[in-house]
Specification:
106 residues; alpha+beta; three-stranded mixed sheet; 5 helices; 7 strands
């Protein structure tokens, strides 16, 4: 879906590559923490994401980064970062191969 030809899910996902988990310094996209991106014709963006653990003390930092990288995109009117823990994050199945290598998960 695009908003006035300016905004797309692909562009949003590309920008989210610049959001890093502050504890392990890896992109939330590469970690597999972004579960869904929803974009309305009105320019409302909802990013459904999780954290590496429910007790992560820096969840608010990630939420803020999501807001920061998306709010200035042309066509974005509102950003909703929606935190979920369902399903729980599993790096063995959700993280990229590069992340698995860096974390020593195989």
């Amino acid at each position: 879906m695009t908003v006035k030809g300016l905004l797309s899910e692909e562009l949003i996902r590309e920008r989210l590559q610049d959001v890093f988990d502050p504890e392990i310094h890896m992109s939330i996209m590469e970690l597999g923490l972004v579960y869904d991106v929803d974009l309305t014709d009105e320019g409302d963006v909802t990013v459904t994401y999780t954290l590496t653990s429910p007790g992560c003390p820096l969840g608010a930092v990630i939420d803020g980064q999501i807001q920061d990288v998306l709010v200035d995109l042309p066509g974005v009117k509102k950003v909703n970062a929606k935190l979920t823990f369902s399903p729980p994050w599993d790096p063995k199945t959700m993280a990229s191969d590069d992340v698995k290598m860096q974390l020593g998960i195989w």
